[in-house]
Design brief:
mainly alpha; 3-stranded parallel beta sheet
């Protein structure tokens, strides 16, 4: 085999590379799946559907909402941790993703190593509500009426809020 023939054979893969790359297509080239670790109809499901509705025209692909509720979000999150990391299955979740491992002894995923955050749509407040039987002067859990949930020896101050007024 001559030197020219060898060089021509070695150059063939380099010449074919642009056509191979074009044949692979762009991302996404198939539907995307949002795994929502809560049942249909709740707040997380609603936000997932709103986000999907806006993203579908931009991506040119269908986004399928897959609700995998149960276990306070653990079942769906575990399912998301086990899918191939190909960008076609995304976990659409809320703070329980990080909170559950803090308060539970055993959980089926590592929230830091098994997932990569790609965005945040917003934030929400977590509210502690009391009924009208709780006197207005109660400002700590310890001052709660006897039998009230959480009426323990904790003395953390409670922030009071009224409709239309921020609780800062």
């Amino acid at each position: 085999m001559t030197m020219t023939t060898r060089r021509a054979l070695l150059a063939l893969p380099a010449l074919a590379t642009p056509w191979i790359a074009r044949a692979q297509g762009g991302f996404p080239d198939r539907p995307i799946r949002f795994i929502v670790p809560f049942p249909p109809g709740g707040g997380t499901d609603t936000w997932a559907r709103i986000a999907a509705e806006g993203m579908q025209p931009e991506l040119g692909q269908t986004i399928i909402i897959e609700n995998r509720g149960g276990g306070g979000g653990l079942i769906g999150t575990e399912a998301a941790a086990k899918v191939p990391p190909d960008g076609y299955s995304l976990l659409f979740t809320i703070t329980t993703h990080i909170q559950s491992p803090v308060v539970m002894r055993r959980f089926p995923y590592d929230p830091v190593h098994d997932f990569a955050p790609i965005g945040r749509l917003g934030t929400t407040s977590i509210l502690f509500c009391v009924g009208p039987a709780v006197p207005a002067g109660v400002t700590t859990m310890a001052e709660s009426p006897p039998g009230a949930a959480g009426g323990t020896s904790r003395s953390a101050p409670m922030r009071q809020a009224r409709p239309g007024m921020p609780s800062r």
